[in-house]
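Narrative of activities, Objective 1.

The group set out to show that a structural description can be obtained from nothing but a protein's sequence at a throughput compatible with the screening campaign. Below is one input-output pair from the validation batch, recorded exactly as produced.
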Amino acid sequence: QVQLVESGGGLVQPGGSLRLSCEASGFTFSSYGMSWYRAPGQRRELVATISSSGASNYADSAKGRFTISRDNAKNTVYLQMNSLKPDDTAVYYCYAPIGRGGSWGQGTQVTVSS
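Output recorded for this entry:
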């Protein structure tokens, strides 16, 4: 059974940093690309993707500020977020392309506010 458990969200001031973690289980983590999405409202938007080989891609809003990485030994994908802005406030979700429709974590809230 695929499980994705996010952590690391919280309240941070504008300009601050957070590192989100997503611990995966139930599948061969090293064989799959992984993604982070966020939902500032009802709709989820792609933030960053990392391939099984470590190649990464970012939404324009994340380029230069966010870094996605993975540790296959820990079955964990990370999202380092720097220079956070109020517009980054959202629930952040981890995603794995497994199963019909893919698999999602429960989400972690990030709030950027002074």
